[in-house]
Amino acid sequence: MQKKEIVAMLLAGGQGSRLGILTKTKAKPAVAFGGKYKIIDFPMSNSINSGIDTVGVLTQYEPLALNRHIGIGIPWDLDRKNGGVTLLAPHVKGEHGEWYTGTANAIYQNIDYIDSHSPKYILILSGDHIYNMNYAEMLKFHKKNNCDATIAVFEVPIEEANRFGIMNAYENGQIYEFEEKPKNPKSNLASMGIYIFSWDKLRKALVADNDIHEDSDFGKHIIPMMLEEKQRLFAYKFEGYWKDVGTIESYWAANMDLIVEFPPINLYEEFSKIYTNVDHQPPIYTASTSAVNRSILAEGCEIYGEVYNSVLGMGVVVEEGAIVRDSIIMSDCFIGKSAVIERAVIDSEAKIGNNVIIGTGENIPNEEKPKIYDTGITVIGEFSVVPDNVVIGKNCVIYGKTKPEDYTDGVLSSGKTIITETEEVLA
């Protein structure tokens, strides 16, 4: 097998529990974004746009949707005999299988895959961030500074730095200390979870730490170990758009960023396009009764009603008299006549009945998951059905084929949940 200078390892096995029912049946990187994309499309596209043609995708939680989406990597030009994309799930070793128990442990379990390409450098990526980045520039920085590890950092407001892993560095960029969510941060350089390592140094660290920590993690174990050993770790400042879409609110906000007059992330730049795996769809149709303003409509949408400040996936139908506002409607959803949808996230293939109102009332946190659903956004799960003539409040959660009798007097008050299946799991 031909040697590769650099191999990318994309960590895509996370459950993303803070996204609630959006990740009930799929891993966080497989969640739809921006009308036609999946979250994982961003690091995948960044890799090929940066000239990296060997990508290992590490899957674990609910991998089916992700596996189907990636396939053999054709949309990203990663269907190659030498290199290309490889899906790497936990597998049996000896008598027992072994789950990935930490970010570094996941890489440790795939040392043989990496060694088969004999890379000089290894790029570690998270599969759940929205950004456009040229990793080739980061690699140049790594080589120029003769680094053992280069960590991409993003400057955050100092008052928010206590929510991140913070890299404290000298003026030349060399890191002297790492603090995980410090109470009194010394800097505002937040780790993006993007690393380039010299493979020989990382390999030794992975083997050594595996003997100590079963849940070996880059932030908790590998980086502190390398700092303690006085290895050369440098911070690479990234100045573009970067968003961790780990919560319902941040996911909604990142989608809304796409519809402003001058979006902070450009999905149309010739040399940094975001590629995805989608079927061919008919053109968008807007009827004489329709009105659309500051919204993204993916291919195949049929709009007979009104859409404002929203992102609609492929094949969405909005019937006459319906109003969709400040919402994310994923692919193949149906919005019935005279329905009013405000500040909602509706997952794929859901059906909203006629005269339904979603997003009204007080902003009361969800009773069952108050830390997940607390910003006024109501979430409807994939394949769900909402019957005609019901009123749904804020921070509500609906999953399954609901019926009129599931709604007391035709109302689901703010903060309430309906899950019409035996295993009542929100995340």
Secondary structure blueprint with pairings:
Blueprint: E1 6-11, E2 32-33, E3 37-38, H1 41-49, E4 54-58, H2 64-70, E5 84-88, E6 92-93, E7 96-97, H3 103-108, H4 111-115, E8 121-126, E9 129-131, H5 135-144, E10 149-155, E11 165-169, E12 175-180, E13 189-198, H6 199-210, H7 218-228, E14 233-237, E15 242-244, H8 248-257, E16 285-286, E17 291-293, E18 296-297, E19 302-303, E20 306-308, E21 311-312, E22 317-318, E23 323-325, E24 328-329, E25 334-335, E26 340-342, E27 344-346, E28 351-352, E29 357-360, E30 378-380, E31 385-386, E32 391-393, E33 397-399, E34 411-412, E35 417-419
Parallel strand pairs: 1-4, 1-8, 4-5, 10-14, 16-19, 17-20, 18-21, 19-22, 20-23, 21-24, 22-25, 23-26, 24-27, 25-28, 26-29, 27-30, 28-31, 29-32, 30-33, 32-34, 33-35
Antiparallel strand pairs: 2-3, 6-7, 8-13, 9-15, 10-13, 11-12
Helix pairs in contact: 6-7
Structure description:
The chain is an alpha/beta fold and 427 residues long. Mean pLDDT is 92; it is low at 422-427. α6 (199-210) crosses α7. It starts with 5 loop residues before the first strand and ends in an 8-residue tail after the last strand. The protein has a 7-stranded mixed sheet with strand order 5-4-1-8-13-10-14. The chain has a 7-stranded parallel sheet with strand order 17-20-23-26-29-32-34, with no helix packed on it. The protein has a 7-stranded parallel sheet with strand order 18-21-24-27-30-33-35. A hairpin with a 5-residue loop joins β11 (165-169) and β12. The chain is globular, with a radius of gyration of 23 Å. The chain has 8 helices and 35 strands.
